[in-house]
Amino acid sequence: MTFQSQTNRKFLFSLLFTGILFTTSCNNDDATSGSNPSGDNTPVTTNLAIEPSNTFAHLKLTAADYTYWNSNSINAAATTEKIKTLCQSEIYPALKDEYDFIVFVMNNSTLPTGMPYGEYHSVKNDTQGIGLQLFNDSSAFGSAGKLQGVYFLYKNNIDLGPFLHEMFHRWGNWIVPQNYGGHWDSVQGILSGAGNNMADIELYLCGAIPANQITDPESLAIYNDSRYTNKVRVPNSESSQKKFKSLVVLMSQTDLTAEEITSIKNKIANITRTPAEGTTNSAYQNIYNKSRGLLTLTIGGLNLDKK
Fold first, then answer.
1. Per-residue model confidence as pLDDT tens digits over 198-248
2. Which has the closest alpha carbon to 96: 247, 269, 274, 276?
3. Which has the least CB within 10 A, 51, 68, 118, 122?
4. What is the DSSP letter of 199?
């Protein structure tokens, strides 16, 4: 989907506070050390339901919980703690520690009042040269170190909304301050508009290309900015991760209809599809297209991840 500039501007305003709060949460050392219960044979119960084709998971919530998640920033301290508990109690008791990202999708047809399209919370950073300190809070979410981040989408527009935009807050923009925290003022990339392709500076930050392949003028201006002091990425593009795996968890108040399940599966296929798996086009977000074929994303196969 190609967004017009006016839509991009509205989208950026809606996500402004996300970047600011994210920076705060990343620099806050959390002493919580929650993890999956272990060391005994007590069965762990979970409300997580795996959709029959094993593409995504579903959590049916009470009205009170659904309202809570639709009205509280995940980067607020209390809400972050609730997410940790959610992952510990519902996700990891049922599924193996196989995911780089956990994506919670609220089953809303319209955006809740006062909420952005999406929010990202960083769980760990083991990459130097992207403007973030090194840290690892994965154990507090129930992961043994695999999980890199969690994020919420507040509208069920998986293949048309900020799915890739929020994912990309894993790497940027934390190097040069901008008017829109965590985004770009001038660079035409995934962090300035959800319909854009990934800019050279974004591909560098995520480890897809080396610095000598940053060629577009706006990306070069960011890379050469004097405020970007530690710009040597470790690991470099030769050894960095290019294939990622996410878990999609749909949150709703009711059981899903057959039509809803089919729709969600199709949207996930649109996000992840490579040319070898069928036609990809600009009518929807697709990580292979947006990254010039340098990055891939796997969602599904949950039958192999069940405990």
1. 999 999 999 999 999 999 999 999 999 999 999 999 999 999 999 999 999
2. 247
3. 68
4. P
Q: 28-52 as b/e, with b when 16 or more CB fall inside 10 Å?
A: eeeeeebebeeeeeeeeebebbbbe
Q: Is the dihedral of CA 251, 107, 140, 114 positive or negative?
A: negative
Strands (E), the chain: 49-50, 57-60, 101-106, 118-122, 124-125, 135-136, 149-153, 243-252, 296-299
Pairing of strands 135-136, 57-60: unpaired
Task: Tell me the pTM.
Answer: 0.86
Nearest to 207 by CA among 100, 292, 130, 288: 130
b/e map 160-197, b = 16+ CB within 10 Å:
bbbbbbbbbbbbbbbbbebebbbbbeebebbbbbbbbe
Q: Are 9 and 170 in contact (CB under 8 A)?
A: no
Q: How many residues does the chain have?
A: 307
Instruction: Tell me what pLDDT residue 6 has.
Output: 39
**Res. 14: pLDDT tops 50:** no
Token digits of residue 65 = 């919980």
Q: Which two tokens stand for residue 189?
A: 């990339």
CB 205 within 8 A of CB 233: yes
Q: Tokens for 81? A: 């703690």
Phi and psi of 296, rounded to 5°? Answer: -135, 155
The C-alpha atoms of residue 19 and residue 26 are separated, in whole angstroms, by 10
Strand, coil or helix: what is 262? Answer: helix
Phi, psi of 120 (to 5 degrees): -115, 140
Question: How far is the C-alpha of 147 from the C-alpha of 121, rounded, in Å?
Answer: 11
